[in-house]
Design brief:
Helix content: 40-55%
Strand content: 15-25%
Order of helices and strands: HEHHEEHHHEEHEEEHE
Structural class: alpha+beta
Strand order of the largest sheet: 4-9-5-6-7-8
Largest sheet: 6 strands, antiparallel
Amino acid sequence: MKTTLTEENYLKALFHLVDSESKVTINELSKFLNVKMPSVNNMMKKFAEKGWVIYETYKPLIVTEKGRREAALVVRKHRLTEMFLVKKMNFGWENVHEIAEQLEHVHSTIFFDKMDEILDYPKFDPHGEPIPDKDGNIIAQDLQKLSNCELGEAVIFASVTLSDDAFLNYLTERNLLLNKKIKIIKIENFDKSITIEVDGKQEVLSRKATEKILVKK
């Protein structure tokens, strides 16, 4: 049986929230999806029947391997769509999320496999996040938040986490794009804002911004 739109939204939330032990709480899901706890509980009971999670009252959910794969395949559709919109239709990276949200619920596997082929099997989406393959496997990345970097470090801008269009516009206006070299010039003790240098120009980024930017050394 095909997954419903609502089920796919829950699966995608599980993908983003699950920790290193494959656990996530009902409360975390409720806040992430802005859905009331009883509704989340009811959906997770259905997920348990499908073998996607292990559900026990008052305990964190455990996402099974089957559930992880189902969640990754929803994310695959979303990220492939975003890449197609940027690479083949010339959309800006800040304009693709909403369209991908709609197209990710198309159930045709052939459609997304063809999209993958046309794009020459990309490993990452326009925001630097890995695209799961047809089996739901995903490339592990060794990245850290810009906010965790030290004074004087030089790093490469590798990815943006769960960012809205406004933040992506903010980055674009400052020419902060993927694969740019970033040098940490100053870290404010008061609010932990960071002065960086990119392409010979300096920019001051708030703590909120540096929490969303992932970099590699």
